[in-house]
Amino acid sequence: MALDQVSDALLPRRYQEEIFTRAQQGNVIAALDTGSGKTFISTLLIKWVAARNIGGDKITVFLVPKVALVQQQGEFISKQTTLRVRQFSGATAHDMGDREGWKKEFEDADVFVMTAQIFLNLLTHSHWSMDKVSLIVFDECHHTRKNHAYNGIMREYFQTPVESRPKVFGMTASPIWNPKNAVESLTTLERNLDSKVIAVKEHVDELVGHSPKPTEIIHVYPASPEKYPDYESKSLKQRLDLEHLPPKIGIPVEKILTRYAVTLYSLGPFGAELFLYTEVKQRVSQLIQDALDSAMDYLTPAQYTENARGRFTALHQEDLVHPRLRELEQTLAEFSSFFDPPEGSTPPEIPMSWCSPKVRVLAETLFHSHVIKAEQLVGHGRDAGAKTNTKGMGTRNQQDTVQLFRERRINVLSRLGAHTHVISVASVLETTHQQHMATHQLAITIPCEMIWACDLVIRFDPVQHMVGYVQSRGRARHKTSTFIIMVQEGAQAQAERYLQFLQSEPQLKQVYQERDLALSTPDEDEDDKDDPADLAERERFVVPTTGAILSYTSAIGLLNNLCSLIPRDKFTPMHVPRYTGDYSATVHLPSSLPLPADLLVYEGPPRRSKKEAKRAAAFLAVKKLHSLNVFDDYLLPAKSSRGREKEDPDGVPIGDVSKIPDVMEVRVRDPWVLGRTLWLHVVYLDGRPSAGLVTGTPLLPVDLVASGLYISTDEPRELVLHPLDAWSQRRAMEDYTRMGLWWCITGRGITLPLTCYLVPITRDYTIDFAAIEQAILHPYGSYNWDGVEEEHYGHLLYMNNKEAGHPMILHRFRDDITPSSQPPPGSREEAFPTYRDFWLHKTFFILPELCHRATDVWRAREARIALKLPPIADDVLVQALTLPSANTSFNNQRLETLGDAVLKLAAVVHLFNKYPHRHEGQLDSMKRVSVSNRTLLARAVERRLERHLSSENQSIRMWRYITADEDDLYALRARRRTARQFPRKSMQDCMEAILGASFATGGIDMALRAGDALGIAIGGPSPWSMRYRPHAPKSPPAPLFAQLQETLGYDFVNGQLLLEAITHPSFSSTDSTSYQRLEFLGDALIDLVVTDYLYKKYPKATSGQLSWARSRTVCAPALAVLAVKRLRLHQYLLINNVELSIAIARYVPILEEISDEEIIHHGWKQDPPKALSDVFESVMGALLIDCDYNYDKAAAIVEIVMEDFLALLHPDMPRDPVSQLMVWVAQSGCRCVRFAKSQSRPELRRYDCMSVLVHETTVAGPIAAPNLSMAKGLAAEEARRVLDDPSSPHHLSRVCVCGMEQVKEDEPVELPPEVVKEELDDETHEGFAILAQILIEETEDPELKTADEDEIAEREQTDGEDEDVGIPMDTNDTVDAVEENEDIGLKNSNGFTYDEHVQTESEDDDVGMAMATHDTIEELEVEQLMQLDV
After folding, report:
1. pLDDT tens digits for 535-551?
2. pLDDT 10s digits, 609-640
3. What pLDDT was estimated at residue 407?
4. How far apart (Å, rounded) are the C-alpha atoms in residues 1097 and 1?
5. Which residues pair with 685 in a beta bridge?
6. Which is more confidently placed, 1298 or 416?
7. CA separation for the pair 474, 468 (Å, rounded)
């Protein structure tokens, strides 16, 4: 080992090896003094156990009682071992619902260092089990008593079979709590930990040498006097006059004055007044802030903005802030310079006569030879539900303070608990004296777990128990350290207790130093505070399917967690269980839980303590709620929504999709192969049989319209070739088709084998091989027109090379027209000004379109069979399977938007009915799992959906119907697969698009069948009306609802639904639960109704246009207007909250006056109370249920209610100001823009302002609004105006330095794969730019992304004809003359004659196709035989 590594690798001392050896033999509790290296012994044991864990399937758990110890002990173990160590505390642990996250942690780690409560939760929710743990280390194991989490873990330990239990190793410096009954105290600890307390026996001298005892001194101080005459007579306490404060203000005067008296006696008047100043100031500030916050909540946006600008005084009215609070605030301000002087100013002198005798003695001790550089160390924090700003100290701040102490940058620490509300002794000391001459480190009641050895430790408060004495003294472990106990003069009990601890310690150690590993089995079950009879009557419930554990210890926490997830608005306080009774407790659950009244109250059995009675009642409640499916089988109230769920709400596993690449390489189903068996499909043009399409796959009949023609194919028929000529006939069809593709489509040769042939046919629908042979022999046609006379009229077949693939019969010559002549009315060329224009612009290349259509239909039918889909219309299913990358005139994005809304409603209805007792928060969490991209992707992969997607780009210049493997041409079994690439996001989009296609074809019933076939958790394929038959008896609504029903045009059957729909969560009622579940249902219903309306009304609208138009109507302001103006629901709403009632009353006039156009176009500028939009959604949800889930009926009523708003929607509606700003800035080329939030009034301590920064220059804002979303819209609106104003100093050209001249050269922002818009931060330049690019892509019309295919084809053929069209230009000198003179006569017509195929006009329907070329000719009166564009 290198010398620089010696200090990092510790070597065990002999007494440590002794304890380690004994720990190998059984479960032990190592009772060693602080600083003797107990953690190192545990590390030796961890490595020993890990070496024996052959299978590697078990873990080691190192438990600590406090958060601060997690990092300290975790880092030590990591440094001393090669094991994989994970650290977890409350702030760093996964959510208990994140089963996949915890599973990965357990797979990737060997040692877990965590707080005890986290491990107990892991056992409770069956993330891990005790039999999968090889070793549990309990740090400070003396806490394993009563209801500490350590004891809860050990209770699960005892439920595990003996042979499967882990080894236990406890560490403590003080195993005995009660020295008066040491044996019983020790026995209880041993029993609780199933271990034996041991101490060093053989190497005591070495232990003593490494664990020196400090010098212990008692400092006696006089009792505090009743009065301090030197202190100012007009004190803060007198000025505040708290005794006469009105109770309604909400300040706990009695509690504060009690603590004031305690502080006065302990620290003196200055310390007591400092405490009073700090405590009252915090409470007064909080109460004023609450009053102002409440007032801000029901200000209108205009009032809010005026208030932020200081021009609105409503917030200073006395009815909002009590006058006495203002008086207290003023009094405290007068004393601020004395108690809280500004930074940098000289603090006032504090004479020692203002301090208690106790503080004076302490000061004399410290100032005797020390420089005071003090800091306080406070506990972690206040209760989560408290409103006071009195906070504890965060873990990071604690660690920073301790580090300063270790580095000697401070040398006095005063340790306080987070809830003591006692002024720090250090602050008093630092105020009273400034400088002295020493650098020793000292601490005043410091926390033992964080501080190393100190020179001086002073126990300022009395010692209460043996553990506290040993822990405090353990900090003074230098050989020259001093430990001072401060005892009040005359306080005999304090002195006696300390002396008892001091004298009894050696005897107490002897109690366990000589013990062996044999365990005693006393009769008692618990220590002094828990009644053994209560413990004996405790129950334990284990969920059979998962192993999750419900105990008395965990029940209260599980109920609290359930209630905390109930959604609430800003007017509703947090939901909590309420307990009544003493020794027989009853728990009352919040009425917002969707349970009958009798299931909201649970009465527990009688118990001998109040706490045990509460636990018993909570236990019964959780057990019953689990049976009602309110808790799942892991005893969790809701599944996590973090994207790591292993199963959907129906319990079906969700596959791992993390390894699927962003761009997938797949084998797509494709019919274009040629095997030994060939199939002939007759192609009809406008009903005439015109050609044959030969393939290796029997294709389904298809039809389409292309180039003005109606094209169709018939049923396939097997093509039987002559055995002797089969190879030559295949070759002939190949050469013939290749020649046609070269001339008429690609403009260049094709070398790879083709996978389909287009051939001429005879009148009996067989292949015309004679015509094929003639075309091959004369690939450029016959240009000899000599001898063509009138006798050939009606018998000569020719082809124009500008209209390739269209053989015609010559009727007669005309010499009275030229290419510049105007076509006569009724002719096929009449749409063009001249014959020349017709030939230049008209194209007839429909073969690619025919093949593409055949591919689409074949894949759609294959997908329908493979995926077991219902009979979705071919055209709609084709659209659903077509990806945007195909660059066709259609894709699946519109159907994806529709399907997204269908999926949402189907999932919501299913969850609503499957979990009738789960509240909205739980349902919403499960819904997110059902509709998440991850779930949809997993289901798509399971069903191999990628095999059926169409992504081919339809370029006519690139002929894709070829094969690279000639063996496929003669394979017995053709491989109908082709390689493709597309983004994996396409999979989940297609899942939703198929749902949309099924809904568009057959409504919600067909969508349910399709969703079930795709494996989506929507409750199965049966219709809702059959699945969810009404259970509640008919109960007509109260007369109160008569007007509402008349407005709706619907009479409710179940009046209880209407009562539930208008009950706000603040209104507790035994008759009905709140409207939250119905709101959850109604939201999904409205979303689909509006989406379907827009989808049908605007068939050309893009997905982005549909989404944006929908958002204008389903937003909260729009629904609030409907609730007030259309249905008058604010008059029915049942509320029990004054602030909410005031807010609604103030906003209703605004909503009544606002126009429909204003709310649709500028609804984002309004912020009505959410309850108004919620109650509208809940009434619509009640409507769907009362209709027996008849969607069509409910949707019709919703449309009627919303008809005025729906009529205003159109695809071209302007975007919101934020989107407009993003798109405009991005298109202008600037990429350094971002939003920034701020506060309008710092005393409110909430962000309500937004600014727009361009290159870190503020161009708009800060603009205040009731919520950040509105503030952002207002700021964006202002920024767009300023940036676009040429006269503004902030015109974009003046503030942007991106280089506007390079805008056109810059590439658009590259979007990260699988980017999630909700996760992007527009307060960064990168996030703003990416969001802008997403918006640009969403608003683009897919039909405008590429030029029209026909225009491309015509331009390419015209521009590239000289280079690669089939006829070399040097083979016909007359062509140049024709193009130059545009004088096209008979002699230059260059036709190709087939005398042997001359037919009469009556027979032309059966004439086959021949290939020939012909430049633009004079008009000939001919009859077109075929218009197939090859």
Report:
1. 888 888 999 888 889 98
2. 888 999 999 999 999 999 888 888 888 886 65
3. 53
4. 79
5. 688, 711
6. 1298
7. 10
- The span from the CA of 880 to the CA of 991, in Å, is 9
- Mean residue pLDDT of the chain comes to 77
Q: Is the pLDDT of residue 114 over 50?
A: yes
Best CA proximity match to 698, nearest among 732, 673, 729: 673
**pLDDT reading at 1394 higher than 50:** no
Residue 55 confidence (pLDDT): 57
Give me the mean pLDDT over the 268-277 stretch.
88
HEC secondary structure over 889-953: CCCCHHHHHHHHHHHHHHHHHHHHHHCCCCCHHHHHHHHHHHHCHHHHHHHHHHCCHHHHCECCC
Highest-confidence range of 399-408, 869-878, 1130-1139, by mean pLDDT? 869-878
Among 110, 612, 1079, 1083, the one annotated catalytic? 1083
> Rounded to the nearest 10 degrees, how much is the dihedral formed by the CA atoms of 999, 1005, 1007, 1010?
-140
Cα–Cα dist 401/412, whole Å: 11
Strand partners, 1238: 1249
Please choose, from the candidates 789, 672, 825, the residue with its C-alpha nearest in 3D space to the C-alpha of residue 737. Answer: 672
C-alpha to C-alpha distance for 205 and 306, rounded to whole angstroms: 78
Contacts of 1380 (CB under 8 A, 6+ apart): none
The answer to whether residues 1391 and 655 touch, using CB atoms and an 8 Å cutoff, is no
Residues 6 or more apart in contact with residue 379 via CB below 8 angstroms = 392, 393, 416, 417, 418, 419
**pTM score of the predicted model:** 0.73
- The CA distance from 811 to 809, in Å, is 6
1321 belongs to the catalytic site: no
- Say which of 768, 896, 1167, 1177 is annotated catalytic: 1177
Spell out the SS3 assignment of 1067-1121. CCCCCCCCCHHHHHHHHHHHHHHHHHHHHHHCCCCCHHHHHHHHHHHHCHHHHHH
Q: Give first-to-last CA distance, the chain, whole Å.
A: 81
For residue 31, give the 3-state DSSP assignment: strand
563/1313: higher pLDDT: 563
Q: Is 100 a residue of the active site?
A: no
Could you tell me the strand order of the sheet in which 456-459 lies?
215-221, 482-488, 456-459, 442-444, 412-416, 374-378
* Sheet bearing 578-580, strands edge to edge: 578-580, 586-588, 601-603
CA dihedral 161, 163, 165, 170 (to 10 degrees): 130
Q: What is the C-alpha to C-alpha distance for residues 1257 and 1284, in angstroms, rounded to an integer?
A: 15
Query: For residue 869, what pLDDT band results from cuts at 50, 70 and 90?
Result: very high
d(CA 280, CA 624): 45
